Automatic annotation (TrEMBL):
The keyword Phosphoprotein does not apply. It comes from the Bacteria. This is Oxidoreductase. The keyword Oxidoreductase applies. PANTHER family: COENZYME F420-REDUCING HYDROGENASE, GAMMA SUBUNIT (PTHR42845), HYDROGENASE SMALL SUBUNIT (PTHR42845:SF1). Pfam families: Oxidored_q6. SUPFAM superfamilies: HydA/Nqo6-like. Residues 17-153 form the NADH:ubiquinone oxidoreductase-like 20kDa subunit domain. The lineage of its organism: Bacteria, Bacillati, Cyanobacteriota, Cyanophyceae, Leptolyngbyales.
Length: 259
């Protein structure tokens, strides 16, 4: 049956750097393929014009770090038929989740002259820790082609086709020589979800884990391999505590090596 109205798309920002929203803006020509089917109803990064909800699809960037945002995400969820989180901040708490391993009050007392005016939560958490999420799109930042796939899938009422295997598969497809085997370079690729087309290994650099844990990652085996390469416990903790520090698999492995 022919669609009688355009589907409403909303994009929301919480604690983040806006990089994933910029990935959407960077789609440009690709967006034209779905432009006739959607109405960008709420996207402050692109326009100050706001169309009242409810929204057929909401894309949410950023983590929950303040009491206000903890309330606002519920408002977004109620106004959205489908909600997709985009990027490491929204899916695992982001780089700001490093606060979760320390005392936030100690940080605010050092950084701010009047810390008593700072209203923040002790932890930076993923959107899914607060409301139901229909799909999580990983990356720091996200892959714009994957974003288009997710948007097209939900607007067409089908499941997104996003890989859950590791970056190692992308390396093989690209013809990269394994940096750990050939050069002894520590690499997070074996436990990191694909999505970047193995960008860093293609330039003889180890993967940094930008896309978070792959499906069923064997982090213990990777850590053991890194130790054989001469990596100590401190650097192992640092490796797992980057863009996706509070993703469960990375968090637990980092805590296992914490001294």
């Amino acid at each position: 049956m022919k669609q009688l109205h355009k589907l409403k798309l909303a994009v929301w920002k919480f604690a983040s750097c806006d990089g994933c929203q910029l990935s959407l803006l960077d789609c440009e020509d690709e967006l034209l393929t779905v432009a006739g089917e959607i109405e960008i109803a709420n996207f402050m990064e692109a326009s100050s014009a706001v169309v009242k909800g409810p929204y057929d699809l909401s894309l949410v960037e950023g983590s929950i770090t303040t009491p206000h945002d903890a309330e606002r995400i519920h408002q977004v969820r109620r106004a959205s038929k489908r909600l997709v989180t985009i990027g490491a901040c929204a899916t695992s708490g982001g780089i700001q989740a490093l606060r979760n391993f320390k005392d936030v009050k100690a940080f605010t007392s050092i950084v701010y002259a009047k810390p008593e005016y700072i209203e923040t939560l002790n932890k930076s958490t993923a959107i899914a820790d607060h409301v139901f999420v229909d799909f999580e799109l990983r990356g720091c930042p996200i892959n714009k082609h994957q974003l288009l796939e997710v948007m097209s899938a939900f607007l067409s009422d089908r499941k997104p086709v996003i890989p859950t295997y590791s970056v190692c598969i992308e390396c093989k497809r690209r013809g990269n020589v394994c940096v750990m085997v050939a050069h002894g370079t520590p690499c997070m690729g074996p436990v990191t979800q694909a999505g970047c087309n193995a960008l860093c290994p293609a330039y003889n650099r180890g993967c940094y884990g930008c896309y978070g844990p792959m499906e069923s990652p064997n982090t213990a085996a990777l850590s053991q391999w890194w130790k054989q390469l001469g990596v100590d416990e401190t650097d192992l903790v640092r490796a797992y505590r980057t863009f996706n520090a509070y993703a469960e698999a990375f968090r637990k492995e980092s805590e296992r090596h914490e001294q």
